[in-house]
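Title: Prediction job returns without error message
Component: structure pipeline
Severity: low
Priority: P3
Assignee: unassigned

Description:
Job completed but the reporter wants confirmation the result is attached to the right record. Sequence as submitted:
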Amino acid sequence: VKRPSGMSTLLGKIGSKKQKMSTLEKSKLDWENFKEEEGIVEELAIHNRGKDGYIERKAFLERVDHRQFEIERDIRLSRMKP
């Protein structure tokens, strides 16, 4: 009896498996459903846009990190030139 082999058989086995939902995907889905049920989608969006919001703080930290990198880079380059 000859067994089927090759790439097509392998891909068929991989493709036929049902994809399971990861814990992270399930949590994200649950959170989205909770926000919709409670009607807090707009409230969260407004809060996160403010000065004390997570997104604003994250953007600020990224700008500071980039600025610090540029300063350090300029110092390194100035030391290299005679």
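Comment from assignee: result matches the submitted record. The helical segments are 7-16, 23-38, 41-49, 54-80.
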